[in-house]
Amino acid sequence: MEEFHNGNEGSFNSEEADNIVKECIEGVVGADDYSQSLVNKWTASIVERCLTQLVKQGKPYKYMVTCAVMQKTGAGLHTANSCYWDTTMDGSCTVRWENRTMYCVVSVFAVAIA
Fold it and tell me: Residue 96 in contact with residue 77, Cβ under 8 Å?
C-alpha cells in the first residue's frame, strides 16, 4: 500500500477537487443553453470526466460523484448529504455552477483506501 502514499499523504483537498469539477462542467456544458434532450448526456459526461480527473491524481481514495442539472425556472432546489467517516482523511465537496439558463450541482465524496 505504501506506493499509493508516495508524497500524497494528508487529508482530502476539497479546493483541488472544486477546481477539477468546475473545469469538467465547463468542458461539458460550457456556454450551452439548457436542453432537456441533452441533460442525460451532460450528467453522464460530467461524472465520468470528474472521476477520470480525480483518479489521475493518483491519490489513495475511492470516489463517488453525483451530478444534477436543472433548468432555471425560479423553482427551488435543496440538497443535503451526511457522511459517517474518518474526518481526518476522508472528505467531500459540492460545487454549484450556473449560467443564464441552468444550474449544475456536483458532489464529490472521497473515502481513503486503508
Answer: no
